Amino acid sequence: MPLPDLEAPADLLVETAYAKVNLALHVRARRDDGYHAFESLFVFAEHGDRLEGQADADGAIDLVIDGPFAAGLDTGSGNLVMRAAKALQDYLGTERGARLRLTKRLPVASGIGGGSADAAATLRLLARLWDARIDAGELAGLALDLGSDVPACVPSVTQMVSGRGEHLARHGVAGLEGLPMLLVNPGVAVSTAAVFSGWDGQDHGPLSADSLDQLIGAGRNDLERPAMALAPAIADILAALRGRAGLKVARMSGSGATCFALFDDDAAMGRAADAIRAERPDWWTMETRIRSA
Ligand code: C5P
Protein backbone atom coordinates (compact mmCIF):
# COMPACT_ATOMS: atom_id res chain seq x y z
CA MET A 1 0.00 0.00 0.00
CA PRO A 2 1.48 3.40 -0.93
CA LEU A 3 1.61 5.87 1.95
CA PRO A 4 -0.65 8.89 1.62
CA ASP A 5 1.21 11.74 -0.05
CA LEU A 6 1.26 14.39 2.65
CA GLU A 7 2.83 16.84 0.20
CA ALA A 8 -0.04 16.56 -2.31
CA PRO A 9 -1.22 20.04 -3.26
CA ALA A 10 -4.75 20.94 -2.25
CA ASP A 11 -5.87 21.54 -5.86
CA LEU A 12 -4.76 18.11 -7.09
CA LEU A 13 -7.67 16.16 -8.59
CA VAL A 14 -7.60 12.44 -9.33
CA GLU A 15 -9.75 10.31 -11.65
CA THR A 16 -9.60 6.60 -12.45
CA ALA A 17 -9.79 5.72 -16.15
CA TYR A 18 -11.74 2.50 -15.59
CA ALA A 19 -10.98 -0.38 -17.92
CA LYS A 20 -13.90 -1.04 -20.30
CA VAL A 21 -15.02 -4.58 -21.07
CA ASN A 22 -17.49 -5.61 -23.79
CA LEU A 23 -19.38 -8.53 -22.23
CA ALA A 24 -20.83 -9.18 -25.67
CA LEU A 25 -20.32 -7.38 -28.98
CA HIS A 26 -22.57 -8.12 -31.93
CA VAL A 27 -21.50 -6.51 -35.19
CA ARG A 28 -24.61 -5.88 -37.29
CA ALA A 29 -23.55 -4.01 -40.44
CA ARG A 30 -20.79 -2.21 -42.26
CA ARG A 31 -21.76 1.45 -42.65
CA ASP A 32 -21.11 3.77 -45.56
CA ASP A 33 -18.90 6.01 -43.42
CA GLY A 34 -16.37 3.22 -42.80
CA TYR A 35 -17.57 2.44 -39.28
CA HIS A 36 -19.54 -0.62 -38.21
CA ALA A 37 -22.91 -0.65 -36.49
CA PHE A 38 -22.77 -2.84 -33.39
CA GLU A 39 -24.65 -3.67 -30.22
CA SER A 40 -22.59 -4.20 -27.12
CA LEU A 41 -23.02 -4.45 -23.37
CA PHE A 42 -20.27 -2.30 -21.89
CA VAL A 43 -19.22 -2.88 -18.30
CA PHE A 44 -16.35 -1.27 -16.43
CA ALA A 45 -13.74 -2.70 -14.10
CA GLU A 46 -13.15 -1.25 -10.65
CA HIS A 47 -9.53 -0.57 -11.72
CA GLY A 48 -7.79 1.25 -14.53
CA ASP A 49 -5.30 3.97 -15.38
CA ARG A 50 -4.88 6.87 -12.94
CA LEU A 51 -5.07 10.50 -13.99
CA GLU A 52 -3.97 13.40 -11.79
CA GLY A 53 -4.37 17.04 -12.67
CA GLN A 54 -3.84 20.46 -11.22
CA ALA A 55 -4.28 23.97 -12.54
CA ASP A 56 -1.53 25.54 -14.62
CA ALA A 57 -1.19 29.24 -13.94
CA ASP A 58 0.03 30.00 -17.50
CA GLY A 59 -2.95 28.37 -19.21
CA ALA A 60 -0.79 25.65 -20.77
CA ILE A 61 -1.72 21.98 -20.93
CA ASP A 62 1.05 19.51 -20.36
CA LEU A 63 1.18 15.81 -19.76
CA VAL A 64 3.62 13.37 -18.25
CA ILE A 65 3.07 9.63 -18.45
CA ASP A 66 4.47 7.05 -16.06
CA GLY A 67 3.51 3.52 -15.02
CA PRO A 68 4.14 0.03 -16.42
CA PHE A 69 2.73 0.75 -19.91
CA ALA A 70 4.12 4.27 -20.39
CA ALA A 71 6.90 3.21 -22.76
CA GLY A 72 6.56 4.55 -26.27
CA LEU A 73 3.49 6.68 -25.59
CA ASP A 74 3.48 10.15 -27.12
CA THR A 75 2.88 12.97 -24.63
CA GLY A 76 2.33 15.50 -27.43
CA SER A 77 -0.77 16.78 -29.18
CA GLY A 78 -1.60 13.38 -30.70
CA ASN A 79 -2.17 11.74 -27.33
CA LEU A 80 -5.90 11.21 -26.62
CA VAL A 81 -5.52 12.86 -23.20
CA MET A 82 -4.05 15.97 -24.85
CA ARG A 83 -6.72 15.90 -27.57
CA ALA A 84 -9.47 15.64 -24.95
CA ALA A 85 -8.00 18.51 -22.92
CA LYS A 86 -7.65 20.72 -25.99
CA ALA A 87 -11.19 19.89 -27.17
CA LEU A 88 -12.66 20.87 -23.81
CA GLN A 89 -10.51 24.01 -23.55
CA ASP A 90 -11.61 25.13 -27.03
CA TYR A 91 -15.25 24.26 -26.40
CA LEU A 92 -15.35 26.23 -23.16
CA GLY A 93 -13.21 29.04 -24.56
CA THR A 94 -11.29 29.01 -21.28
CA GLU A 95 -7.84 30.46 -20.67
CA ARG A 96 -7.25 27.94 -17.91
CA GLY A 97 -4.65 25.22 -18.26
CA ALA A 98 -3.67 22.01 -16.52
CA ARG A 99 -0.71 19.87 -15.60
CA LEU A 100 -1.70 16.25 -16.06
CA ARG A 101 -0.02 13.00 -15.00
CA LEU A 102 -1.25 9.73 -16.45
CA THR A 103 -0.20 6.50 -14.77
CA LYS A 104 -0.62 3.90 -17.48
CA ARG A 105 -1.54 0.61 -15.85
CA LEU A 106 -3.58 -0.90 -18.70
CA PRO A 107 -1.96 -2.35 -21.82
CA VAL A 108 -2.21 -0.13 -24.90
CA ALA A 109 -4.37 -1.03 -27.95
CA SER A 110 -5.79 -4.00 -26.10
CA GLY A 111 -9.61 -3.90 -26.41
CA ILE A 112 -10.26 -2.61 -22.88
CA GLY A 113 -10.57 1.00 -23.87
CA GLY A 114 -7.38 2.29 -22.27
CA GLY A 115 -7.04 5.33 -24.54
CA SER A 116 -10.81 5.95 -24.58
CA ALA A 117 -11.03 5.70 -20.79
CA ASP A 118 -8.07 8.07 -20.46
CA ALA A 119 -9.78 10.62 -22.74
CA ALA A 120 -13.04 10.31 -20.79
CA ALA A 121 -11.22 10.67 -17.45
CA THR A 122 -9.55 13.81 -18.83
CA LEU A 123 -12.94 15.32 -19.70
CA ARG A 124 -14.30 14.50 -16.22
CA LEU A 125 -11.21 15.77 -14.41
CA LEU A 126 -10.92 19.03 -16.34
CA ALA A 127 -14.65 19.75 -16.12
CA ARG A 128 -14.15 19.66 -12.33
CA LEU A 129 -10.83 21.52 -12.32
CA TRP A 130 -12.17 24.31 -14.53
CA ASP A 131 -15.65 24.43 -12.88
CA ALA A 132 -17.12 23.93 -16.34
CA ARG A 133 -20.80 24.46 -16.94
CA ILE A 134 -21.26 21.65 -19.43
CA ASP A 135 -24.08 19.15 -19.50
CA ALA A 136 -23.87 15.42 -20.20
CA GLY A 137 -25.06 15.82 -23.81
CA GLU A 138 -22.38 18.40 -24.66
CA LEU A 139 -19.71 16.23 -23.02
CA ALA A 140 -20.90 13.20 -25.00
CA GLY A 141 -20.59 15.17 -28.26
CA LEU A 142 -16.99 16.14 -27.47
CA ALA A 143 -16.33 12.54 -26.43
CA LEU A 144 -17.58 10.98 -29.70
CA ASP A 145 -15.21 13.17 -31.72
CA LEU A 146 -12.35 11.59 -29.76
CA GLY A 147 -13.35 7.99 -30.48
CA SER A 148 -16.32 5.63 -30.70
CA ASP A 149 -15.87 4.25 -27.16
CA VAL A 150 -15.24 7.55 -25.40
CA PRO A 151 -18.91 8.55 -24.77
CA ALA A 152 -19.59 5.30 -22.87
CA CYS A 153 -16.40 5.79 -20.84
CA VAL A 154 -17.54 9.21 -19.56
CA PRO A 155 -20.03 7.76 -17.02
CA SER A 156 -18.19 4.39 -16.91
CA VAL A 157 -21.28 2.48 -15.81
CA THR A 158 -22.96 -0.58 -17.35
CA GLN A 159 -24.58 0.48 -20.63
CA MET A 160 -26.08 -0.98 -23.77
CA VAL A 161 -24.19 0.75 -26.56
CA SER A 162 -25.20 0.81 -30.22
CA GLY A 163 -24.68 2.70 -33.47
CA ARG A 164 -20.93 3.26 -33.75
CA GLY A 165 -20.88 3.98 -30.01
CA GLU A 166 -23.08 7.06 -29.77
CA HIS A 167 -26.34 5.45 -28.63
CA LEU A 168 -26.04 4.81 -24.91
CA ALA A 169 -28.61 3.40 -22.51
CA ARG A 170 -27.98 2.50 -18.89
CA HIS A 171 -28.69 -1.20 -18.63
CA GLY A 172 -28.63 -3.01 -15.32
CA VAL A 173 -28.38 -6.80 -15.40
CA ALA A 174 -29.18 -8.60 -12.15
CA GLY A 175 -26.15 -10.28 -10.61
CA LEU A 176 -23.56 -8.53 -12.76
CA GLU A 177 -22.20 -5.77 -10.61
CA GLY A 178 -19.42 -6.75 -8.22
CA LEU A 179 -18.73 -10.02 -10.07
CA PRO A 180 -15.06 -11.05 -9.98
CA MET A 181 -13.48 -10.43 -13.39
CA LEU A 182 -10.05 -11.55 -14.55
CA LEU A 183 -8.43 -9.77 -17.50
CA VAL A 184 -5.67 -11.46 -19.50
CA ASN A 185 -3.63 -9.92 -22.30
CA PRO A 186 -0.91 -11.66 -24.36
CA GLY A 187 1.24 -8.56 -24.90
CA VAL A 188 0.29 -8.27 -28.57
CA ALA A 189 -1.28 -4.96 -29.65
CA VAL A 190 -4.02 -5.22 -32.29
CA SER A 191 -5.42 -2.43 -34.43
CA THR A 192 -9.16 -1.83 -33.98
CA ALA A 193 -9.47 -0.77 -37.63
CA ALA A 194 -7.72 -3.95 -38.85
CA VAL A 195 -9.95 -6.20 -36.71
CA PHE A 196 -13.19 -4.52 -37.84
CA SER A 197 -12.10 -4.75 -41.47
CA GLY A 198 -11.63 -8.51 -41.02
CA TRP A 199 -15.29 -8.97 -39.99
CA ASP A 200 -16.88 -11.45 -42.41
CA GLY A 201 -20.00 -9.36 -43.06
CA GLN A 202 -22.31 -11.96 -41.51
CA ASP A 203 -24.96 -10.52 -39.20
CA HIS A 204 -25.57 -13.22 -36.60
CA GLY A 205 -28.40 -11.34 -34.92
CA PRO A 206 -29.14 -8.79 -32.22
CA LEU A 207 -27.85 -8.76 -28.67
CA SER A 208 -30.32 -9.50 -25.89
CA ALA A 209 -29.03 -8.81 -22.42
CA ASP A 210 -32.05 -9.20 -20.16
CA SER A 211 -30.25 -11.62 -17.86
CA LEU A 212 -26.76 -12.85 -17.08
CA ASP A 213 -27.67 -16.32 -18.40
CA GLN A 214 -28.73 -14.80 -21.72
CA LEU A 215 -25.53 -12.76 -21.98
CA ILE A 216 -23.44 -15.82 -21.25
CA GLY A 217 -25.43 -18.28 -23.34
CA ALA A 218 -26.40 -16.28 -26.41
CA GLY A 219 -23.93 -13.40 -26.29
CA ARG A 220 -20.92 -13.41 -28.61
CA ASN A 221 -18.05 -11.24 -29.61
CA ASP A 222 -18.18 -11.17 -33.41
CA LEU A 223 -14.68 -9.69 -33.52
CA GLU A 224 -13.07 -12.75 -31.88
CA ARG A 225 -12.53 -14.54 -35.17
CA PRO A 226 -10.89 -11.66 -37.11
CA ALA A 227 -8.84 -10.70 -34.04
CA MET A 228 -7.55 -14.28 -33.64
CA ALA A 229 -6.46 -14.25 -37.28
CA LEU A 230 -4.18 -11.31 -36.39
CA ALA A 231 -3.23 -12.46 -32.88
CA PRO A 232 -3.42 -16.26 -32.49
CA ALA A 233 -2.48 -15.90 -28.79
CA ILE A 234 -6.13 -14.91 -28.15
CA ALA A 235 -7.14 -18.54 -28.75
CA ASP A 236 -4.45 -19.65 -26.27
CA ILE A 237 -5.81 -17.29 -23.61
CA LEU A 238 -9.39 -18.48 -24.08
CA ALA A 239 -8.21 -22.09 -23.89
CA ALA A 240 -6.28 -21.29 -20.69
CA LEU A 241 -9.36 -19.68 -19.11
CA ARG A 242 -11.98 -22.24 -20.13
CA GLY A 243 -12.50 -25.20 -17.87
CA ARG A 244 -11.35 -23.39 -14.72
CA ALA A 245 -13.39 -24.15 -11.58
CA GLY A 246 -16.00 -21.47 -10.84
CA LEU A 247 -15.85 -19.91 -14.33
CA LYS A 248 -19.05 -18.33 -15.66
CA VAL A 249 -17.80 -17.16 -19.06
CA ALA A 250 -14.56 -16.37 -20.89
CA ARG A 251 -14.63 -14.16 -23.97
CA MET A 252 -12.59 -11.52 -25.81
CA SER A 253 -13.26 -7.83 -25.09
CA GLY A 254 -13.69 -5.23 -27.84
CA SER A 255 -11.33 -5.76 -30.76
CA GLY A 256 -8.88 -7.68 -28.52
CA ALA A 257 -6.48 -8.96 -27.65
CA THR A 258 -7.52 -8.78 -23.96
CA CYS A 259 -9.91 -11.53 -22.84
CA PHE A 260 -12.02 -11.48 -19.71
CA ALA A 261 -13.34 -14.22 -17.47
CA LEU A 262 -16.16 -13.87 -14.94
CA PHE A 263 -16.04 -16.08 -11.86
CA ASP A 264 -18.49 -17.15 -9.16
CA ASP A 265 -16.29 -15.79 -6.37
CA ASP A 266 -12.92 -14.18 -5.57
CA ALA A 267 -11.35 -17.48 -4.50
CA ALA A 268 -12.10 -19.12 -7.86
CA MET A 269 -10.72 -16.09 -9.70
CA GLY A 270 -7.58 -16.09 -7.53
CA ARG A 271 -6.89 -19.77 -8.19
CA ALA A 272 -7.33 -19.36 -11.95
CA ALA A 273 -5.15 -16.22 -11.99
CA ASP A 274 -2.37 -17.92 -10.02
CA ALA A 275 -2.40 -20.93 -12.33
CA ILE A 276 -2.34 -18.81 -15.49
CA ARG A 277 0.47 -16.59 -14.18
CA ALA A 278 2.51 -19.70 -13.34
CA GLU A 279 1.95 -21.16 -16.81
CA ARG A 280 2.36 -17.92 -18.75
CA PRO A 281 4.41 -15.35 -16.82
CA ASP A 282 4.69 -13.34 -20.06
CA TRP A 283 0.93 -12.59 -20.10
CA TRP A 284 -0.51 -9.56 -18.29
CA THR A 285 -3.31 -10.28 -15.81
CA MET A 286 -5.52 -8.08 -13.69
CA GLU A 287 -7.91 -9.32 -10.99
CA THR A 288 -10.80 -6.90 -10.60
CA ARG A 289 -14.60 -6.75 -10.32
CA ILE A 290 -17.42 -5.29 -12.38
CA ARG A 291 -17.93 -1.73 -11.22
CA SER A 292 -21.29 -0.77 -9.73
CA ALA A 293 -23.32 1.96 -11.37
O1 C5P B 1 -13.70 5.44 -33.27
P1 C5P B 1 -12.32 4.92 -33.13
O2 C5P B 1 -11.27 5.92 -33.53
O3 C5P B 1 -12.02 4.30 -31.80
O4 C5P B 1 -12.22 3.74 -34.17
C1 C5P B 1 -11.01 3.24 -34.69
C2 C5P B 1 -11.29 2.50 -35.99
O5 C5P B 1 -12.01 1.30 -35.69
C3 C5P B 1 -12.17 3.25 -36.97
O6 C5P B 1 -11.40 4.09 -37.79
C4 C5P B 1 -12.82 2.12 -37.75
O7 C5P B 1 -11.92 1.63 -38.73
C5 C5P B 1 -12.98 1.05 -36.71
N1 C5P B 1 -14.33 1.09 -36.12
C6 C5P B 1 -15.40 0.59 -36.84
N2 C5P B 1 -16.66 0.62 -36.29
C7 C5P B 1 -16.86 1.12 -35.06
C8 C5P B 1 -15.79 1.62 -34.30
C9 C5P B 1 -14.52 1.59 -34.86
O8 C5P B 1 -15.22 0.13 -37.97
N3 C5P B 1 -18.10 1.13 -34.56
From TrEMBL:
Domain of life: Bacteria
Binding-site list for ATP: P107, V108, A109, S110, G111, I112, G113, G114, G115, S116, A117
Residue ranges constituting the GHMP kinase N-terminal domain according to the UniProt record: 79-154
Pathway: Isoprenoid biosynthesis; isopentenyl diphosphate biosynthesis via DXP pathway; isopentenyl diphosphate from 1-deoxy-D-xylulose 5-phosphate: step 3/6
UniProt enzyme class: transferase
Active site: K20, D149
Gene3D superfamilies given in the database record: 3.30.230.10, GHMP kinase, C-terminal domain
EC number(s) given by UniProt: 2.7.1.148
Annotated ranges, domain GHMP kinase C-terminal: 213-279
Keywords tagged on the record: ATP-binding, Isoprene biosynthesis, Kinase, Nucleotide-binding, Transferase
GO biological processes: isopentenyl diphosphate biosynthetic process, methylerythritol 4-phosphate pathway; terpenoid biosynthetic process
GO MF annotation: an example: 4-(cytidine 5'-diphospho)-2-C-methyl-D-erythritol kinase activity
UniProt signal peptide: none
Known catalytic reactions: 4-CDP-2-C-methyl-D-erythritol + ATP = 4-CDP-2-C-methyl-D-erythritol 2-phosphate + ADP + H(+)
Listed NCBIfam families: ispE (TIGR00154), PRK14608.1 (NF011202)
Record family assignment: Belongs to the GHMP kinase family. IspE subfamily.
Function of the protein: Catalyzes the phosphorylation of the position 2 hydroxy group of 4-diphosphocytidyl-2C-methyl-D-erythritol.
Protein name: 4-diphosphocytidyl-2-C-methyl-D-erythritol kinase
Species of origin: Sphingobium lactosutens DS20
